[in-house]
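Hi R.,

Here's the chain you asked about this morning:
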Amino acid sequence: MRGGVSGPFVDPRHSALDAPVCWLPETGAAILTATAARARVSRAADLALPELLCLRHIVNRGHRAGQRLLFHTTDVSIALDLHGDRITDAPVNVTFHVTGLGEAPRAGALLGQLPRVIATAPREADLSARRLFLRDGLIALDGQRAGATYFDIAEVIFGRARAAAAWAGPSRAMKDRLVRARTKAEKMAVGGYLHLIA
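And here is the predicted structure, written out as tokens:
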């Protein structure tokens, strides 16, 4: 399984239950709900952790709340809320739940995509200069809103050694880049992101 990365600027006053580090429904990940039961025969399990190629994150949501798995490919994200046995303990079989007939078409479409999503190896992200700049801007904006200094933000993006060297040296290049990136992120946050999908 690939390791997930938590957001570095989650407000430390909140517990994980109040500020969960996971994708919420309103951010675009479609959600399916299922009950997981430990498979009697591992080879016949519906879900086995080593075989989930596009699994990006597992969030333990407390003993009774279960686990949220986030599958992500370049074209779709599906979150799977598992209740019952934990997939991190053993392979599981799953029973999906649909609430009401109105949800059946949406759930059916997601269930139709799920086998492909689970078995698809993720493509590596295109880390172009533009994408890195946008990523850094969003990190800077999140950091600023959480009360982090520009130095704190530089440490997250560039690492402690590079940030310390940049702050100690005469060049303002790193500092100026962070200011420009944050300014760009502010514009994106108020609607500029629409230009990315136009």
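One quick note: DSSP finds six helices and five strands in the chain.

Cheers,
M.
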